[in-house]
Amino acid sequence: MTEVESPPAAPLDLVVSIINFRTAQMTIDCVQSVLDDIGDLRAHVVIVENGSGDGSDVVLTDWLTAARAENPDIPVSLVVSAENTGFSGGHNQGIRAMKARFYFVLNSDAVVHKGCLAALLADAEAHPETGLFAARLEYDDGTRQISCFRFPTPGSEMIRGAQSGPVTRLLKRYDIPLDMPPAQEQIEWASFAAIMLRGEMIDAIGLMDEGYFLYFEDTEYCLRARRAGWGTRYVEGARAIHFRGGSAPVKSLAKARKRLPAYYYASRTRLMYQSHGRIGLLAANLAWYLGTGLTYARLLLTRKVNTLPVEREMRDIWTNFMRPLGDRRAPK
């Protein structure tokens, strides 16, 4: 791992961690939106070039060199990782880069509105018992995205398998997405596309779990924080546009019902095991089978279903079942 210039010596109020993986121009746009919002805040941006292997390191280095020529004091550092360390590993590098009271984890496929950072920090000062502060995520037309959730359970896996209105209504208390904006007490976890973490909480519970390559690491971190007494809040006044899907293929594969990457199922298994133990993991898989069975029964009877399982999912949900904390199945 290498860094462009040394981080500031004095502790900061806020460090913004942004991972780049083959989205160099998108990352630059993201960083620029943060720089436009920093104002008088004692803040610094850390870009983690996460082993893209497509020349992104050169593009970002050239951009930062040119930016420093115009403004030698620009609060941006670049960390270049020799390999793709995943979402957790990438942001852990960003967080380790320098000390701050708060850390804003931000996707490269997002841009912040003016006032986003100040709103997050103000909410954090008003709620010292809370460890995580989720920004309002929007589509580019301003429509609010669903970004706050309940934890996955065997009940939610039955909902996911069944894809049926009656089943969802019957098991409503297990349905993962929350109505937006959510009641603060309902929030169990929130998207890490744009979320601020309290440094004191990180010191207490540790960094993100690098046993996750991609997906579910945000859920696990909120679960670990909650178990340690740190809650999650939604900050409506902190707005960010989230374009979605900048460097991850899972949503597009799922929409096309193509086979999902092994790391997705390895992360799902790890989370279910850490949340509910081995019996809970087994129950989640069996609940998904039951829900999926209802889907196929409905298909036979009515020829109408919302969706069917993706390719090979009936086998792939057993990924790492015997060793839930084993290989994270990162792509080679």
From TrEMBL:
Keywords from the named record: Transferase
InterPro entries registered for this protein in UniProt: Glyco_trans_2-like (IPR001173), Nucleotide-diphossugar_trans (IPR029044)
Domain of life where this protein originates: Bacteria
Domain Glycosyltransferase 2-like per the UniProt entry, residue ranges: 18-146
CDD domains recorded: GT_2_like_c
Keyword Transcription: no
Keyword Zinc part of the UniProt annotation: no
GO MF assignments: transferase activity
Name of the protein in question: Glycosyltransferase family 2 protein
Lineage: Bacteria, Pseudomonadati, Pseudomonadota, Alphaproteobacteria, Rhodobacterales
